Each structure stands twice: as C-alpha cells, then as structure tokens.
What does this fold into?
Amino acid sequence: MLFTIFGATGDLTTKKLIPALYHLFEEEQLPTPFTIVCVGRRRYETEQFVELIRSKIEGDYPHWEDFCTNLHYLSMDFSSEANFDIFKNYVDAMHLSTNGQKIYYLATAPHYFPIIARALIVTHMLNRGDMRSKIVFEKPFGENLETAKAYNRLLLESIEESQVYRIDHYLGKEMLQNILTVRFANKIFESIWNHENIESVKIIALESESVKQRGGYYDRSGALKDMVQNHLFQTLALVAMDAPMGLSDTLIKNEKVEVLEHLQVSNDIIFGQYAGYLQEKDIPEDSKTETFVALKAYVNSQRWRNTPFYLITGKKMSRKLAEIVITFKDATCFFERGQPEKNTLTIEIFPREGIILKFNGKAPGLWSYTMPMHLDYCHLCNIIGNSPEAYEKLILDVIHDDASLFTRWDEIENSWKVIDEIERLKAFEPLHVYYSESEMLDIVNKKWGL
It folds into this structure.
C-alpha cells in the first residue's frame, strides 16, 4: 500500500494522521508492505522530518523505530501541477507493487484540492475505475457552493464517485455513530423523538485553542465553514433524520439529505471574534472573520415542526467541549411540592463519551416532592485496551472501501447552500470581540433564553 499525505507539515498530520497510522500498524491493520510518503513544501530530509514528527506527538510509541522505516518525506511545492512529475518519479523509483492500494490524502487548504486532484489524474496516479487508487479530501470540501461544485465536477469527469472519500472526522467519533443506535434501537426514545415531546436541540462544539499556525487557512474559512458546514450540520442531520427503510449506507444518507434540504436558519445569528485574533500569524489587521458563531435553525418537516435547533461553536473558549443536549417539554402533571424539571438527554462527545438522562423522581424521605435524578452511561468505561481515535476508524474504512462514514456529494451540496445564505447575512450582523467564553454564552443565553 502507498499512503501519501499532501500537506504533511501541518498540525493534522502530526496530531492525527501519523498517530492513527501508527496505531493501525501496531494493531496489524495496515496492508503489508506499506509505504507512507509525506509531501510538504518545507525543506526537510526524511530523517529530519521523522525526528520532528516524533518530537511533536505525545504518548508511548514502543514500535516507532519499526514504523518509521516506512515513512518518507518529499519536499515539493504541490501548489503547481508542473511539479507532480517529481512526485511520480519519486514514487516510481520506489518500485512498489503495482497491485497495492494507492491512497492520496489531501490534508491541505481547500483551494489546493483541484490542483492536486487534477495533477494526480493527469499523471495517471489516479485512474478511473482503478479501485485500488483513492483520493481523500479533508473538510471543508470547497470554499463555497460554487467551488465545491467545480471540485466535484473535476473529479467525476475523470474518476468514479466510489474512488472519492470526503472526510468529516466527527462521523468517526464513537458517540456520533451511537446516535442512530440510541434512537432506533430504543423504543423509549424513538417514540417521543418529535416536536410534540422535544422542546429544543442544542449542539455545542467549543475549542480551547486559538487558530495557532493555521491563520492563513482559517481566515478564509471562519467558524461557519470550518465547523458548522461539516461537523455541526452532520450532527444535526443524524439527530433529526427520519428512520431509514434499512441501515444501508445509501438509505441513511438519503434521510440525512432530506434533513439538509429542509433546513432553514433564522436570520438571528451571533458572530464573534476572540480578542487577539488580529495579531495572529497571517491574519489581516482588518479581518472580519468570525471565530465564534451561534445560530438557530429549524427543520421544516412533520417530525420537527417549530422545534429550534441551536448550533454553537467557537475558538479560544475556556474548555474543549462537544455535546448534544435534547431538552424535552414540561410534564403536564401538577405537583404541590417540587415542580418537575425538564427532562434532558445529553450525548457527550468530548472530553467524555457517554449519555446522561435527567428525569424526575420522588425525593427520599417522608415528604412527597419531586427532585431531578440522573442515569449516567460512560462509553469508554466499557472498552478494554486502546480506544480507537476517529481517524483510525476512517483510514481503515478507506483501506476497506467502506464509505459509510464519509459524506456524499449531495450532503455537501445542501450544506453549502445553507452556508452561502448565512454568509450573505454576515454583513448585517455585529461582530462581537470577546475575551472569554462566558461573554459569548451570555449573549446567546440573553437572546434565546438557553
């Protein structure tokens, strides 16, 4: 197997891709023999690059020396198609098996996607119908609907849809995969999963880090394109979709598309930018790019009529947190002592993975009054040994030709339609400069009473 990473000097390679590939190697899940070619524009020798990677990744890697013998670094400017003969000659010189898989992973900014894809096609590194050759795109796929359509058209004119993998690593997270199981395998939830019983749905994805070294990319994307268009919309689709006729990949994605096609965002949107953003590397001094966004959306369907979905995400928060909170409507029965609180179902994605159900019961003692109680399920507590990261699962799925956890083109297309509409509203909304998480959450709570 040849596994090539374009954009190999970025944080994604160091933090996610190389550790994921290492763990798959350690668990004997990678095809053998395998070669990993890391392509970046910075000048390193392979030995220097390997040392740099090892110095940056945290944790114990007892078989690192065996693993890194399969790592190679190629210094090349992949922003020019003319340079890809260098890449082809470099790979040809390795005399790899012609029967092995060839996976090209684009861990770059979206505007490099068409350059790299076209070059791979022109140099016949990626050929139509050769199911051993595959191309993987990091999110977001495109910079808006127009560019996404252009990228997709370029691909499907030359290769098969089944050779294209549009990754959203959120879909590889255990608790995202668990949403459908919790919903459809439990009558107690699915029978009340509708507007008659649910008051609101809140999807939260907070990040404690700044943009760090990703300023050049991030300023072209912002929180809307970096988080909402992919992670949050995909999560919303899983929560809101109707029951599919079966659990096949196609049927599930059909239902997700139905949600995205009927998604309507309120004009009441909150944008923020953390204090100090304008001083980050590669950020223009007059940038209006949002690092925080909160929006209220509705799914125009019979199931979700008038039920608000709140999507909240931001950088430079006090903590890293990802969760879904389903809030149910008030109980109709009146109690003289201790009015029941609203039931909530919280699906925890990060840092803990689990499910918490808040319900009401009788307080202990002689008096009869209600009090909130909790059922708490810890997902990782049931795992013995290493808990696989999302990227391990997704890379393994690419190797096994399994696209079930990757986004289909019509999902992306409908997501971009909504984002493009929101982008047009940005000019009319204030950009709040914030110094803390609490400032932005206070604005959200005052606006929507959350």
